[in-house]
Write a structure and sequence with these properties.
The protein is an alpha+beta fold. The protein is built from one helix and three strands, in the order βαββ. A three-stranded antiparallel β-sheet has the order 1-3-2, covered by helices on one side.
């Protein structure tokens, strides 16, 4: 099965660490990153979609970050 996650975080090194951790666990970048102003919190936010092939069948209770 192919799994999909969208990672987001404030524009700090925490975002880079989140994406790097996913890549180290076998996730692959999917599409271009996004960058937008979060007016409610007054900060810039980053986002990146990632995908991964995994054995088994999908179910909504899966913890995608643990895959």
């Amino acid at each position: 099965m192919k799994l999909y996650r969208f990672l987001s975080e404030d524009d700090t090194s925490a975002f880079c660490h989140k994406v790097s951790e996913a890549l180290s666990k076998g996730w692959e970048l999917y599409g271009d990153p996004t960058y937008a102003f979060d007016a409610a919190n007054g900060v810039m936010r980053c986002g990146q979609a990632v995908v991964k092939e995994a054995p088994g069948d999908y179910h909504p209770e899966m913890k995608l970050g643990a895959q």
